[in-house]
């Protein structure tokens, strides 16, 4: 089979290559998936560039993918040959991710992909949608479903990003009013396409951003989904209502944040970090169920009309795909691995 691999850390152009490898055999509790699409996320290039690889001689990158089960290991009953599936954390603590024609995964990390959902959508779920789900359920709501966030207002920072896009769509499906902060009119259009009812240009400055959010939610927002805690914490604390939640999932804009202590405890705010790798497996499973339900309902979509443009690369173009994500490509980067 063809597979993208790297054996040392470094730039995508220097260390990624396509090689031929034997088709892997699933063991107990595992299944082999013929990959059709593989998603590329910021975490993939960070693993590749920063040495977060484990003790393996060779790594196939890729946490997210979608394809068809073609063989199951001993004792597996959760999935069957022919099932369409999407993956969660396929390369975490494992050397074999989704940037290959075949991948063997624990069945606990495989989720059935609804029949009407495209493989493009399936490969775009994983890290973005599950992260968004966890952020949206970090407060008083523990599961997402229609009506779960009714009457609540959610602020999504960076509404044109993949996680931001998923957060907007999931929040709207659950009944929330959504405000998204963006840096341009083009990104505002993407956030609105995803479902955000309101957008605020944060490049106008802190005061204007706060005023824009407050115009929508005079008493404050219930929840913030944050991509840049270091850059936005002051705004977030200002616009959150009493007992609000600030859920942050990345360190864009800086590795340290100065939190205003008195305003934070005066409002009884909750600060919730979000990282899938250490997330309790029960929470991962709950997210997978809710995300799949949203897909079945047609509430999670990809493509320009859903605010998430798709950028396709062949498997041999994996280095270019990594470079595109590392360079801040707007939308979702996918590897076309196999035939649908």
Automatic annotation (TrEMBL):
<keyword id="KW-0560">Oxidoreductase</keyword>
<dbReference type="Pfam" id="PF00107">
    <property type="entry name" value="ADH_zinc_N"/>
</dbReference>
<dbReference type="InterPro" id="IPR036291">
    <property type="entry name" value="NAD(P)-bd_dom_sf"/>
</dbReference>
<dbReference type="GO" id="GO:0003960">
    <property type="term" value="F:quinone reductase (NADPH) activity"/>
</dbReference>
<keyword id="KW-0521">NADP</keyword>
<feature type="domain" description="Enoyl reductase (ER)">
    <location>
        <begin position="11"/>
        <end position="335"/>
    </location>
</feature>
<protein>
    <submittedName>
        <fullName>NADPH2:quinone reductase</fullName>
        <ecNumber>1.6.5.5</ecNumber>
    </submittedName>
</protein>
<dbReference type="InterPro" id="IPR051603">
    <property type="entry name" value="Zinc-ADH_QOR/CCCR"/>
</dbReference>
<dbReference type="InterPro" id="IPR011032">
    <property type="entry name" value="GroES-like_sf"/>
</dbReference>
<dbReference type="InterPro" id="IPR020843">
    <property type="entry name" value="ER"/>
</dbReference>
<dbReference type="InterPro" id="IPR013154">
    <property type="entry name" value="ADH-like_N"/>
</dbReference>
<dbReference type="Pfam" id="PF08240">
    <property type="entry name" value="ADH_N"/>
</dbReference>
<dbReference type="InterPro" id="IPR013149">
    <property type="entry name" value="ADH-like_C"/>
</dbReference>
């Amino acid at each position: 089979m063809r597979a993208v691999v790297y054996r040392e850390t470094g730039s995508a152009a220097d260390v990624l290559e396509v090689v031929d490898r034997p088709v892997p055999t699933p063991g107990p509790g595992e299944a082999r998936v013929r990959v059709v699409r593989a998603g590329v996320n910021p975490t993939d290039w960070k693993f590749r560039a920063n040495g977060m690889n484990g003790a393996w001689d060779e790594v196939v990158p890729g946490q997210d993918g979608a394809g068809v089960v073609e063989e199951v290991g001993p004792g597996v009953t959760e999935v069957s040959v022919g099932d369409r599936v999407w993956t969660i954390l396929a390369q975490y603590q494992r050397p074999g991710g989704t940037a290959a024609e075949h991948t063997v995964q624990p069945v606990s990390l495989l989720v059935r992909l609804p029949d009407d959902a495209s493989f493009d959508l399936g490969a775009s779920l994983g890290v973005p949608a599950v992260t968004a789900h966890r952020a949206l359920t970090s407060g008083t709501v523990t599961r997402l479903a229609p009506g779960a966030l009714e009457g609540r207002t959610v602020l999504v920072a960076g509404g044109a990003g993949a996680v931001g896009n998923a957060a907007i769509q999931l929040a709207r499906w659950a009944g929330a009013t959504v405000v998204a902060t963006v840096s341009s009119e083009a990104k505002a259009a993407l956030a609105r396409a995803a479902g955000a009812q309101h957008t605020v240009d944060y490049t106008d400055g802190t005061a204007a951003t706060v005023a824009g959010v407050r115009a929508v939610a005079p008493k404050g927002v219930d929840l913030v989904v944050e991509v840049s805690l270091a850059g936005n914490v002051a705004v977030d604390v200002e616009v959150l209502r009493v007992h609000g939640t600030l859920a942050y999932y990345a360190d864009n804009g800086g590795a340290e944040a100065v939190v205003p202590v008195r305003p934070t405890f005066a409002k009884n705010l909750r600060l919730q970090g979000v990282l899938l790798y250490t997330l309790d497996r029960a929470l991962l499973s709950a997210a997978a169920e809710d995300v799949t339900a949203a897909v079945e309902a047609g509430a999670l979509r990809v493509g320009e009309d859903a605010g998430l443009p798709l950028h396709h690369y062949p498997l041999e173009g994996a280095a270019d795909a990594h470079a595109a994500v590392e360079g801040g490509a707007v939308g979702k980067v996918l590897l076309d691995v196999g035939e649908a």
